């Protein structure tokens, strides 16, 4: 079985749960920007939660199926249609050979996850089917989909079905609250700058993609005076090159925070004020440009509790679907 790409949508790529273990070599994790939605889509069609799916941004693709399958679309509210007839998101539905899946207009969120029973069966690269476009690695020929592509589908192992009610889904609020731990370089900004950073409401900038999300509209940071370190740039936001964790918040020039995401670079010379906690990284993947967001300081204990809460939320979806 295969899925034919009639039109690719916008930046539609094959993604799974990513490629851990190579970040120290400069190869990022990649994988779904919103892992909760990716897992839920796979559960709905009876796949392993980490099976490869399609991730589309703002605009869905048009796909044609060559054999019967079960499909589910999760993530943002971008209504799926089968042969022009609307289906519900977060719900499994059947398709027949020759059916075409298309999408309406985006109502909320930013990314959708299209799971097909059996999973997108592109070759594993370094243990993952995820696409890392900057490195032309993984996915379908290392790139976003194009019209005329044909994607192989694996054998279905289990029956899918059911739906995920809205109270079991995770979506960002308005404004989105992104919890973060202040980082090693927090001491580089003044106490007033730190208070304003958390008090301000920022907005997602148009420069927001799988590498990083830029925010603007807040108060520029004031830095504590220093003697320029050997090897660091002259701007007070420069440091001697260091490693970047996922979710780290760098502020080039002290003006616009950038949260590094799944396809992040692994190091560089900008100081990081902190790191968005893992539990909230999914939420960033559903933010559209110009959406308001606030950074909220948490402790390590609160971050770990949030991670446990997210795991519990996934478990509730499994229990609801009987997985």
UniProtKB/TrEMBL annotation:
Positions of the Carboxyltransferase domain: 24-313
Keywords assigned by UniProt, alphabetized: ATP-binding, Hydrolase, Nucleotide-binding
Superkingdom field: Bacteria
Pfam families in the record: CT_A_B
Molecular functions per Gene Ontology: ATP binding; hydrolase activity
NCBIfam families reported for this sequence: urea_amlyse_rel
Protein name per the record: Allophanate hydrolase subunit 2
Organism the protein comes from: Polymorphum gilvum (strain LMG 25793 / CGMCC 1.9160 / SL003B-26A1)
Lineage summary: Bacteria, Pseudomonadati, Pseudomonadota, Alphaproteobacteria, Rhodobacterales
């Amino acid at each position: 079985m295969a899925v034919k790409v009639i039109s690719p949508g916008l930046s539609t790529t094959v993604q799974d749960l990513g490629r851990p273990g190579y970040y120290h070599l400069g190869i990022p994790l990649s994988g779904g920007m919103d892992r909760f939605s990716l897992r839920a889509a796979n559960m709905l069609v009876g796949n392993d939660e980490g099976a490869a799916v399609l991730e589309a941004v703002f605009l869905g693709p048009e796909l044609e199926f060559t054999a019967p399958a079960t499909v589910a679309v999760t993530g943002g509210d971008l209504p799926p249609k089968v042969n022009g007839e609307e289906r519900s998101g977060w719900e499994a539905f059947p398709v027949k050979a020759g059916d075409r899946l298309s999408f309406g207009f985006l109502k909320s969120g930013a990314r959708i996850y299209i799971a097909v029973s059996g999973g997108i069966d592109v070759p594993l690269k370094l243990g993952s089917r995820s696409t890392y476009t900057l490195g032309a690695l993984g996915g379908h020929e290392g790139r976003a989909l194009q019209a005329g592509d044909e994607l192989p589908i694996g054998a279905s192992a289990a029956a899918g079905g059911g739906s995920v009610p809205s109270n079991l889904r995770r979506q960002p609020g308005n404004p989105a609250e992104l919890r973060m731990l202040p980082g090693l370089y927090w001491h580089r900004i003044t106490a007033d700058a730190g208070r304003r950073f958390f008090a301000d409401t920022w907005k997602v900038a148009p420069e927001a993609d799988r590498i990083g999300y830029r925010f603007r509209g807040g108060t520029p940071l004031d830095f504590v005076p220093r003697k320029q370190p050997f090897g660091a740039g002259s701007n007070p936001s420069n440091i001697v090159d260091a490693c970047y964790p996922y979710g780290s918040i760098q502020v080039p020039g002290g003006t616009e925070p950038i949260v590094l995401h799944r396809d992040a670079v692994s190091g560089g010379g900008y100081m990081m004020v902190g790191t968005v906690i893992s539990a909230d990284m999914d939420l960033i993947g559903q933010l559209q440009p110009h959406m308001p967001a606030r950074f909220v300081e948490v402790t390590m204990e609160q971050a770990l509790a949030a991670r446990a809460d997210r795991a519990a939320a996934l478990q509730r979806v499994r229990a609801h679907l009987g997985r």
